[in-house]
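Table S2 (continued). Query chain:
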Amino acid sequence: MGWIGDTCWKWYSDWRSLWVVNWWAILLIGAGVGFLGGLFGKGGSAVATPLLHAVGVPAIVAVAAPLPATIPATLAATWAYWRERLVDDQVLRWSLAFGIPATALGALATRWISGGVLVEVTNVIVAGLGLRFLLKPNETEIIDEMPSHYGLRLALVASVVGVAAGLLANSGGFLLAPLYLAVLRLPIKASFATSLAVAAVLAVPGTIVHTALGHVNWSVVAVFGVASVPLSYVGARVALRTHGRLLERAYGGVLAVLGITLLVVGL
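Corresponding output:
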């Protein structure tokens, strides 16, 4: 049939299989991912992809669909934090300056770097950071002193997250907030607020590429997004009303469980 014919047939098969998708499940997944994303400062695409695939969405569509919905969802949550002046402008600017080109490099590096290895390393980092936040949260919601070599730390965090986002085809929010907390020592709510703002921008290149490749099914995006966008804002409002130390412990628990679970499943 040839490469073109095989590719077209694969795309047709993927789109046809959407007839058996559980749309109510997609709506619930969107609601849950949106709420947790707003609550814990992450876009949620990394979590949404395996859940969507589990309810019948074809693999490549499950990878691509959360990205377009991530943009308005993270912006809605960011707006809740922005009104409280919690977005760190300096961290936002540096993260975008280093993160955007790093994301492009990460996408190109998929030719040579195994995504499976990166996923395993990321799961270890997520689990380790989760245990750290759970067992030893920051004592205060306001940190007066910047850590040493702050600019270098910020550049490294943005670059590492950008490369990871490019390699894994997501917005990078699953790593931004914990690294802002652990490496930059930002307060928990400022970490969430800034992470969401950066993730909204880093999701744009992936959305454009996947749309151009025909991977985005806008029906899935619409159903997922109609629940995730408002629930993301609600999650952010809940986070704003929660004490910082309690929020960090809850965040640590979720990260630890997620990271350990993914490690065990991947064995």
